[in-house]
Every structure is written in C-alpha cells, then in structure tokens.
C-alpha cells in the first residue's frame, strides 16, 4: 500500500524547524520541493497527481478564464470546465486502474467524477456530511477518519489525502501565528496516527508526505483590473477584451483578445509599476482554452485581487498568501518526507520538484505512468 498525504500550505522553511523529528524516525527528507507558478493549491495538486506541468493539465491557477469569452471561472467545488475526463486520464489513478490496482482519494482538488478512483471523498461532500459551518479542524479530522478506515480495510493499493487546516489558518491569522503554529502540532499528530495504522496493518507500505506551497505575510494590496479601467485600455477592459484573474494571490493570470503587440504594450506598462516583480509572457503551444496570455508576478508581500468597480476587496483581512514565482520568493516552495519498505531510511535530498512525486509512486508500484516528471531515484531503495 502506498499513501500520499498533502499538508497544504506548509513551506519548506517552516517545516525545516520540525524536520529532525521525522528524520530521527527514519523518514527520508527532501528539503525543498519546487512548486508550480503560480504557487497555488489547484495547480500544484494537479501537477502532483498527474506528474505534468500546467501546460499539459491546464490547471493554471485556482481561478482561470476562458481565453475567448474571458469568463471568470472559479475551480472551487471542482468546476467541470477542467475537472473532466481529459484531466482524469492524466492522473495516477488512471494508470493504476489500467493495471488493475485500486485507489482511495480524500479531499484532493479536481477529482469529482473521476471514475478511476474506487473510493472518492471530496471536500465538498464532507462539508455537507458534517453540516452547518464546520471548522477546518473538523474537516481534517474527517479526512483522517476516512484515511485510517481505508488503511484498515486493506482494500486499496493507493490512498491520496489532503489536509487543509494549516493553509486555512495561515490565510486567516498569519503563517507563524499562534493559531497556525499550534495547528501544526495537531497536524503532525494526525500523521502519527496514519503511520501507526500502517504499521498495525502488518502489510508492506510506503508513506509520502509533501506540501504543495508555502505562505508569505501580506503588507500591501494591488488591483490591476482597476488600473486597466483608468488606463488607455479602459474601453477594452470595459468591453471584456482584457482582464486579470486571481483570488487573493501573489500572481494574476492575464487574459486578452487583443493582438500580440497590444498585449506586449500592456505588459510593459505593468512592469513599470512598483508593486510588480515581473510580467511573464506565456510561450509555447497548448490546446487549452484556459491558457493565459501572461502571468503577472507581484513583489513579495503584495496581494493581488481581480476586482473591478463596483466590486469591493475581499481579502483586506487576510494575513498570509501565496502565488509568487517560487524562484523569486523561496518560501513558496514545499518539502517532502517519506518512509516505507521500498524507501531509503533517513536519506537527505536537497531539492526536487512536485511533478516528480507521482513518477516515484508509479515506480514503487512497478507500473508505467507517462508524464513530464521523473522518479526520484535517491529515495527508492533499488536505486542505491
């Protein structure tokens, strides 16, 4: 049995303060897992579970836009614009099913309707089950219960679970707030319960823990659509020919139906603004209708929102965020620790990438999984 658990939002820098307890217990430790850009939950989790880059799985952010209509689409709740068969067939669940292996998936983004998962528990279904306004602690406890039940049933070959509590509390209170820091103790207690259940099963297992991205505290806010509305592109913005989309992030996707030269002029204009780190033009071909023309990367500690008048800011009370380019803001990157029968004991690796996780799991199963990533040989025992 192979178990993959996502500790949403915990940066490699903060985890490093607690990593020694895992290494002492025999876990191998990758100090830094390079995340996606933008460094956000949906893009990172799609990259992990497929092993592909956003150009291939098309999940560019938590919020995207249709490149032709410029309709804003929030992926929360697994919107079927991207949560569909095209994405599902890129996942490790599909490769496992082709080889007659079974999967359980708990609270992982963009998995609704994935027929290659034998037992699927979505975050939205758990919220409905728990009823009323539930805390992130209760949601994670539900994920823990489902995970342990799946292990004890010995029904599934692969289990993938996401724990959301630390990320949510960091957004609300700050990445190193008392609330977020105290929650880490509960989070690691959850992991200990999972490990104990695996050992109790007396079956061979591999347990891989990772984080999808980190967090950074906020000092300023930036509203690029409002800037467009007051610029020489105000008519095009009003006609919905050009827009930025994001959901309280350090980066915003840029969509436009203007010609290439006009887009370049917009990018140059924004590059000169003091809140902007860089404006990356998207290059390369993709069949996705959700590919942006560019990605606006903000300076560290600046939070971007895609509101336009008369909309009001939603995130002025938010304390921490992510989204920045991981090469520019290092705390956006995650980590990985792993323990198991097929894994090295106490191996330390300096750096790897999120897209390499699923090829590593495929190697543990001895199956093929075509994707952009490659297996992390240093943690697999047969690759000494």
TrEMBL record:
Q: Could you list the residue ranges forming a coiled coil in this record? A: none
Which GO molecular function annotation, any one, does this entry have? Answer: hydrolase activity
Protein known as = AP protein
- Source organism per entry reads Brevibacillus reuszeri
């Amino acid at each position: 049995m192979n178990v993959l658990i996502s500790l949403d939002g915990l940066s490699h820098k903060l985890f490093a303060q607690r990593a020694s307890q895992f290494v002492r217990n025999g876990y191998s430790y990758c100090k830094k897992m390079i995340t996606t850009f933008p460094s956000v939950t949906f893009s990172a989790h799609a990259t992990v579970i497929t092993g592909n880059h956003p150009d291939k799985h098309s999940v560019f952010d938590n919020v995207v836009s249709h490149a032709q209509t410029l309709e804003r689409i929030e992926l929360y709740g697994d919107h079927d614009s991207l949560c569909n068969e095209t994405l599902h067939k890129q996942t490790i669940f599909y490769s496992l099913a082709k080889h007659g292996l079974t999967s359980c998936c708990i609270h992982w983004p963009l998995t609704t309707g994935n027929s290659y998962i034998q037992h699927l528990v979505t975050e939205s279904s758990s919220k409905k089950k728990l009823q009323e306004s539930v805390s992130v602690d209760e949601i994670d406890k539900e994920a823990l219960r489902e995970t342990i039940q799946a292990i004890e049933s010995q029904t599934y070959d692969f289990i993938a679970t996401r724990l959301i509590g630390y990320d949510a509390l960091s957004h609300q209170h700050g990445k190193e707030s008392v609330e977020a820091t105290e929650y880490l103790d509960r989070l690691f207690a959850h992991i200990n319960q999972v490990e104990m259940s695996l050992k109790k099963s007396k079956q061979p297992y591999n347990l891989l823990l990772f984080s999808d991205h980190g967090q950074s505290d906020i000092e300023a806010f930036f509203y690029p659509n409002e800037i467009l509305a007051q610029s020489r592109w105000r008519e095009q913005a009003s006609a919905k020919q050009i827009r930025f989309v994001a959901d309280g992030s350090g980066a915003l996707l840029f969509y436009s139906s203007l010609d290439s030269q006009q887009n370049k002029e917009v990018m140059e204009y924004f590059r000169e603004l003091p809140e902007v780190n860089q404006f990356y033009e998207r290059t390369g071909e993709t069949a996705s209708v959700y590919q942006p023309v560019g990605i606006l990367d903000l300076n560290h500690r600046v939070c971007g929102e895609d509101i336009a008048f008369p909309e009001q800011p939603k995130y002025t009370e938010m304390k921490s965020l992510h989204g920045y380019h991981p090469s520019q803001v290092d705390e956006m990157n995650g980590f990985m620790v792993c323990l198991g029968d097929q894994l090295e004991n106490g191996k330390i690796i300096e750096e790897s990438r999120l897209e390499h996780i699923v090829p590593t799991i495929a190697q543990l199963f001895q199956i093929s999984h075509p994707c952009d990533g490659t297996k992390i040989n240093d943690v697999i025992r047969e690759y000494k």
